[in-house]
Each structure stands twice: as structure tokens, then as C-alpha cells.
Amino acid sequence: MELGSGPAIARPRVGQTGWALIGVSPFLVFAFMFLILPTMYLVVGAFQDADGNFTFGNLADLFQPSIRSAYWISIKVSLASAIGGALVGFFLAYAGVMGGLPGWIRPTLMTFCGVASNFAGLPLAFAFLATLGRTGIVTVLLVKYFDFNIYSTGFNLLSFWGLALTYLYFQIPLMVLILAPALDGLKREWREAAEILGANSFHYWRHIALPVLWPSLLGTTILLFANAFGAIATAYGLTGSSLNIVTILLYAQIRGDVLHNQNLGYALALGMILITGFSNGLYIWLRSRSERWLR
Q1: Staple partner for 203: which of 153, 177, 199, 227, CB 3.0–4.6 Å?
Q2: What is residue 202's predicted lDDT score, i.e. its pLDDT?
Q3: What are all long-range contacts of 208-215, with beta carbons under 8 Å and residues at least 24 apart?
Q4: pTM of the predicted structure, to 2 decimals
């Protein structure tokens, strides 16, 4: 090695690269079969009519009042659950990671969040109906022991806010799981340096911690939005067709009812892909910015 040259970097041998490709091939096959290929299929179908002829009619139909309303309701439900999940999840993650609680609480919290973030669909809808439905156990106990009926206040589980509340069950744990590593990345030296310079806790969070965490907070909130926007089983099991959200409308168009139009369903799915793809792209970009400080 010549004087002044950098250290030699070991490059993987051809055989090692081949074995690595074999190891990752199941993921590549899975992604192609269940992500790329179906996406290409529905993109093509969105520009075809029932006879297979090219048309822009399906995209034009997306601007019908009922479809625009479905997209808007889905966006509002996703925003409500994402913002609520981000706020509660942030304080819960802060308490578990930096709150000085007993050591057993954090692993217990993370284990629960790992399970709860994947608990969705029909089981989650049934759990909320059995708990907060009109004959749910919590509703009955409140009436029996406190003479208080939550439905007399205007609350309705089978409504916009009821669905947003149900989504919080998996949105909050997801926020905790993603944000906990970001909180761990806040270096102790930053707080110590701030205290030496006379900063209190408010100044530390205002000028140091929150600016560093802001890309992670915003990016995770966007990810929660995309997570709720694509949910269907929970909404369908909880509200049926009483709440006009885009995933239920898409399900009706694909599976068939009196309004059955499969190609319109493909166009609906294409619109959802564009919205969730844009959201996930923002999340990846914001996360990369945050990781520059948290490494």
C-alpha cells in the first residue's frame, strides 16, 4: 500500500454476493408477486373499460360527489387518528424511555406495543363492539354503577369519531415503537451542555430536542396517516357500509354489488396508492434527515 493512501477496503467475493442474492430472493419474489405485479395490474385496469378498451373514464369518475366524499372522509379519519396517535404515543414513549420509571416497565410496554400495533381487522372491531358498543361491557357498567350512558351524550361507536377512536388502538403503539429509538438517540451530552450554559428543561426541549426529533415526529405522523388510510377490515367490521370511506367503497366495487364496476375499483385503488405512496415517500425523506443527528 502506498504511503498516504487510505486503508484497504475488503470487497465481497463473487461467491459471497451470489449466496447473498439467494438469501434475499424469497423477499424479492414475495415483493414482486404481492406488491409489484398487483400494482401493475390495477394501474392497467384503471385505464380500461369493461371490454378492455383504453379510457380515461374511470379516472374522471373519481370526481363524482360520492367518491370525492369518500376520499375526504377517509382523509379526515386518517388525520384524526394519526394526530391523536402521535400526541398520545409521544408522551407514552417519553414516559417509557426517559421518564425514570422502573426498569421492567419499558420492555413490558414495548412488548404490548408490538402486539397491539398488529391487532386490527375484524378481531379489533369485535373487541370494541364488545367493550364500547350499546350493549358493551363498559357501557353496561357505566350505566349500572354510575347511571351514565355514554350514548346519551351523542357518542356513537359506529361513526366517524368511533372509527377514529378504534384506530387509535393500533396507531398509538405504532408511534411508540417507531419513536422510542429516536428518543434513545438523544445524546446525554446535549442536555449536559445545555445545562452548563444555563438552559432549563424547557429551553433544552425547545431549542435542541424538539428540532432534532421534529423530522421523526412529523414523519411518523405521516406514516400513521398512511397506515389508517389503507385500513379496511376494521372499518368494515365496525361500521359496515354506514360510513362512506374509500376502502369500503373500493371493496364494494371490486367484490360486486348493485354499483359493481371493477375498473372503477382499480381507479379507486390507484388514487389510494398515490396518496399512500406520497405519504410514505415523505416519511422516508424525513426519517433520513432525522438519522443524520441521531447516529
Answers
A1: 199
A2: 87
A3: 212/186, 212/290, 212/293, 212/294, 213/179, 213/182, 213/183, 213/186, 213/290, 214/290, 215/286, 215/287, 215/289, 215/290
A4: 0.85
